[in-house]
Amino acid sequence: MDALSFVIVGHVDHGKSTLIGRLLYDTDSLPPDKIEEISRASDGLGRETEFAYLLDHLEEERKQGITIDTTQVFFKTDKRRYVIIDAPGHVEFVRNMITGASQAEAAVLIVDVAEGVKEQTKRHSYMLSLLGLRQVIVVLNKMDLADYAQDHFNRIRDEVAAWLDSIGIHSEHYIPISAIRGENITAPSDKMPWYAGPTFLASLDTLKNAMPAEDRALLFPIQDVYKIDDKRISVGRIEAGSLETGAEVMLLPERRTTRVKSIEKFLAAPTRAVAGECIGITTADSVFLDRGNIVCMPGHEPVLTDTIHANIFWMSRTPGRKGEKLTFRCATQETSCKIEAIDKKIDSSTLKLIAENAEDIHNLEVAEVTLKAKKAVAVKDFNDVQEMGRFVLVRDENTCAGGIITLPD
């Protein structure tokens, strides 16, 4: 049974953690001691049962009522397993939100019908667009505060749809729910008989899994090299494809070919390894592999370039400037690079164009940039192999930007 990972995003306090907690509760996915813990925590703060406490497990989060970290929860239906990623909504935790969204195959955008589209609704949905997530389910929460009125739902649905259309996201599902009351989560709500679409749970089962990483072309970034007895073992994690002993492979960036002599694992010597496995290899020829080298199949190489066109999200209070030198990290590759051009920058919450051919980029701004790397790096389209299509920019050992690479067709 294939697992599908989806991220839940939205403005702070619009009910992300409550939705997940209610989903787990209504599907009997919680042990009795967890239910008791929720009741105790809610009673201690003088509130009705707060399902968000399942996810907001940190005391600081419980007091402030906001999600700080990115939490993963595993869940199962008759169709498949799910990995639910609860991403922070508060503006100060947007870096964690991007981390969560980058691991997902689909997304759920939650909007409070009492508040409608807010700044972080726009910012988070725009991040989904930048990350290439096209499977998006929209849930309009807190319908109990709108007396379950259809005209109110229609008005907010149209507002959300107009915004998503403007950033290239087209959702097939707009679902009216009340997460705290359990309406339209796992069973149709008798309080909204005018709604004929699927419940939230049923909508999840309509999502499609991405192509398994194992079925893609081989990509094996080298993380380290160990010398054990007379063996030089190059180790790392296979990000895509599979590898067998005797297979001909290409080594980047040198473009030299060799054959795999052996595959090494702790207390094992398998003849085949697949995406997701951490392994070591030895080669038939005496080649020098080092951290950052990429092992791939001849004829299926990633793009090798020193000029990178990408979208970046700036996450430092100190602006990035045209011509500035930074460190570029993608998978295990690392090299110095220069911001050669800031072709366009926009406000991530309004999509308003701030400037073209800009001189700098500020905190929480999105930019289309051209980076010039000191040496060629191997990259893939983010939607093909995420690990090879996303990168970070580092200044003084602090991450200042995250970016994705979308190569032309």
Descriptive account of the structure:
The protein is of the alpha+beta class. It contains eight helices and 23 strands. The strands form five sheets. The protein has a six-stranded mixed sheet with strand order 2-3-1-4-5-6, sandwiched between helices. A six-stranded antiparallel beta barrel has the order 7-8-13-11-10-14. The chain has a six-stranded antiparallel beta barrel with strand order 15-21-18-17-22-23. β5, α6 (150-166) and β6 form a beta-alpha-beta unit.
Q: What keywords describe this structure?
A:
single chain; 409 residues; 8 helices; 19% helix; alpha+beta; 6-stranded mixed β-sheet; 6-stranded antiparallel beta barrel
Strand count, sense and barrel status of the largest sheet are:
6 strands, mixed
What structural category characterises the helix and strand content? alpha+beta
Figure out the total of helices. 8
Extended strand count: 23
Q: Could you state the oligomeric state of the chains shown?
A: single chain
Span between N and C termini? Answer: 32 Å
Morphology call: globular
Q: Radius of gyration in whole Å, from Cα?
A: 23 Å
Strand neighbour order, sheet with most strands: 2-3-1-4-5-6
Q: Percent helix among the residues?
A: 10-25%
Which consecutive residue ranges, at least 5 long each, have pLDDT under 50? 56-70, 89-94
Mean residue pLDDT: 84
> Strand portion, in percent?
35-45%
